[in-house]
Amino acid sequence: MIIYFATGNKGKFHEVKTLASSYGIVVKQLDIKKVEIQSDSLEEISLYAVRDIYNKVISKGIDNVVVEDAGLFIEALRGFPGPYSSYVYKTIGVRGVLKLLEGVDNRKAFFKAVVVFKSSSLGERIFKGIVHGEIVEEPRGIYGFGFDPIFKPYGSDKTFAEMTVQEKNKFSHRSKAFTELFKWLKSMVSKT
Q1: Total number of domains constituting the chain
Q2: Which is catalytic among the residues 63, 69, 105, 157?
Q3: 31 in catalytic set
Q4: Which pLDDT does position 192 carry in this prediction?
C-alpha cells in the first residue's frame, strides 16, 4: 500500500517513512504548501489541512492524503506553545523557550501529534499520540528538528536530538500516532 504524506519537513518524512517500512507501507512525500488555520486545536488544524490538500491532489490521481500537526505543551507555561509551536520555534526558538523557563522548577511537558488520513474509500480518520517528558536546562544533541534538543521523554536519558530516528520512534508522539494509522490501514486492507 502507498500513502501520501503532505509535509515539507524532511525530518518528519524520514521518521514516518522509516516506521512505515516495518508495516509494509510505502510513504511518499507530497511537498505541498499546507494551509494552517489559527486554532487552539491540533485536530481542527489537521482536519482543515487534509481536506484542503486532498481537494488539490485528487484531480492528479492521488486518492489518499495524510497530514500531521504537532505541538509542545509546557506545563509551567500553561500549555504554551501548544498548537503554535512552529511559529514559536521560528520566532524565539529553543533559546527563547529556555529563557521563559529560567528559574522555573517545573519542567514537565508533553508533545502531542495529530495525524489525519483521508481517502475516498476509507473516509477521514484521526490518530493521536502523546509523549510525556521534561524540558532540559540546555539544548543537547545534533539530530532531529524543532524543539528536539530540549525535550527529554520519560524513560530516557537522551533528548530527542540525541537519538537516532529508530530510537526516537520508540518514544515519539508522531510514532505513536502513525503506528495507530498503520495498524488501522493494515486491518482495513486485510478486510478487502
Answers
A1: 1
A2: 69
A3: no
A4: 59
